[in-house]
Known about the structure:
The complex is a heterodimer of chains A (298) and B (441). In chain A, 35% of the residues are buried. In chain A, helix 2 packs parallel to helix 4 (132-144). The mean pLDDT of chain A is 85. With 298 residues, chain A is of the alpha/beta class. Chain A is built from nine helices and 14 strands. The longest helix of chain A is centred in the middle third of the chain and has 16 residues, at 162-177. Chain B is an alpha/beta fold and 441 residues long. Helix content of chain B is 68%, strand content 7%. In chain B, a hairpin with a 5-residue loop joins strand 5 (160-163) and strand 6 (169-172). Chain B starts with a helix and ends with a helix. Residues 271-286 of chain B have low confidence and may be disordered. Chain A: Belongs to the ABC transporter superfamily. Chain A: It comes from Algoriphagus sediminis.
Amino acid sequence: MLEIKDLSKAFGNKQALTDIDLSVPEGVIFGLLGPNGAGKTTLIRIINQIIEADKGEIFLEGQKISPADIRKIGYLPEERGLYKKMKVWDQLIYFARLKGLSLDEAKSRVNHWMDKLEIASWKSKKIEDLSKGMAQKIQFIATIIHEPRLLILDEPFSGFDPVNAEIIKNEIIGLKNKGTTIILSTHRMESVELLCDRVAMINQSRKILDGPIREVKNSFKPEIFEVTLADIQEGLPLEFGAVEIAPGEWHFKTSLNGGTPNQLLSKFMSLGQVTQFDEVKPTMEEIFIHQVKSAENG
Amino acid sequence: MDKIWLVIKREYLARVKKKSFLLATLLTPLIFPALMGVIVWLAVEERGSQALRIIEVVDENDLFFLESSEQYAFSFSDATLEEGKKLVQDGDRYGFLYIPKIDLTDPQGVVYYGEDNPNMNFIMRLENRLRKKIEEQRLLQSGIDPKIISEIRTDISIRSIRLDDEGTESVSNAAVNYGIGFVAGILIYMFIFIYGNQIMQGVIEEKSNRIIEILVSSIKPFQLMMGKIIGVAGVGLTQFLIWIILIGGLTTLVTGYLGMQLPQEQAMELAAQDMPTEEFSEAVPVNSDVAEILQVINGIDFFTITLSFVFYFLGGYLLYGALFAAIGSAVDAPSEAQQFMFPVTIPLLVAYMGLFVFVLNDPNSTTSFWLSIIPLSSPIGMMGRVSYGVPWYELLLSMGLLVLGFLATTWIAAKIYRIGILMHGTKPSYKLLWKWIKSSE
């Protein structure tokens, strides 16, 4: 769907992006991660052709990206807003038409979405008369009104209350199921784990991580296992750092120490009844922090 | 192009639909006739109610005679200085003019006492009359009869005719030319300022409300900027058009209501417009004043003036409009814009002052020439000259340079705009703006 090859961009002396290669397959939700100032927004702006790269190329559906592709892309920037004094209806029609929709098309799509999100009664309200959450909904409609093939969302959940965030999350999943490719740039790792199929991480202008979320997580597992034992025999291995969670039931957290999971399991089996044996998988949050910290130290 | 049109439409409608636009558009033209009405009314009232002002005059030379007018009456007496002052203090007299024995070659010591501060006009009139009298006396002393003086005193007015290269003569009238230049210059100046500011406010709104990044993901920054500039121009033109219609209509109504008869000349002019000119001049014996005015009006090249006005009006607006847009894009709030307004305001002010100090007084001076050639001042400067008649090559040079100037400011503005709109929280300096202009992308 989207191929980014060898992309670099500098602002004066500051390197914003260095030799970025990315591949976003069709129909996935792609998490773009990285701390503030890493270069995510710059990358997104280049994809949106708001600014130009110094070096490198971008291909959308196999073709070198061009201004005509604006219609295929929907973009919800992190810094977003609407005309306060403009009516909801006028505003949505305006944004739809700027994306290249005809007036009739724009009208029918705006009607469709306002009905779908149950906000048809807001049509002639001005944005300044709406609550922040309401305005965010309008903003979301404005982003997807032209049914983009590629949707780029920069911190889409910021500013939403949990109820509206849930609605938007469901809409995102709905769009994905319809075949829309989505790039999600966020700090909120729980939404990344929930939604994303693939992730890439950018830190200090460079890509430091890229792949399907499962693989990324696997490559960062610290080889730690959680075990729960009941009916404990003699010789409790207290060196494992046991915690008694219920009378006669103990919980352990232990690493493999060079052995295999099978060896560890049989060791526990000899001690008592194993009621739980889980490998601890890192959360994206942990991977994120680990990566950023190791980059700072290294 | 379609997208620019969308932006133009939005910018236009968003402003024209506002209540404040309607209010300003309808109220502003009411102000002029209202003011006129008040002034006329006050003048009429004053003239009716004002008591005659009596001024006591003591002339120890027995030489001066001052004629009374509608407003002032002079009563001559032999009162002493003290008695005269007392008359004023008691309110029996409006003023007291004391002329001691004077040496005609060096008249000193004339004093006026009044309860109020007398106005300049009144004192000047008194001085004039006394001077005339003294001059007459001195002529008489030199053996010249004042009768001869008044006989040889002649009124003369110069008829000015403009002669162009082809030898065509046209009657011109400096006052009319002055008026045209004056009004056109001020209109352009106001238009640039009022609507330039609207452009700037609009850009700041889009930037501070964070609409801009959504917009520029759909449309090129340059298209957005030009759309806004043109849309706001449309608003201004609409407003001006409504004003012209309203002011014209209301002024006619008010003058009609106050029973001020149109001066005869004007009435005849209006009549003349209804008739074919040739027939008019043959059929009706015209007095020379009317003929003169008609000739002056015929002599004005309305075609060139209207055409240049539209050209400089739009050219000047576009040239400065782009700069206003650039300023708006560089700042986060209107209050920050102040520091960058300076380089935009100064040339406009220079042009405006130059119009009054140089151009209208001497349209052909070197300063006037340059003011009407340099693109930053030419929209105002050239409009001051054009009614006096400007060689076509100068007009062409000035217009050509204005187009180049417009392209240049737009090019510079677009560079600043493109980067500025995406910058938040950075306080821009001139140095930074220069960097943006230089950056090639």
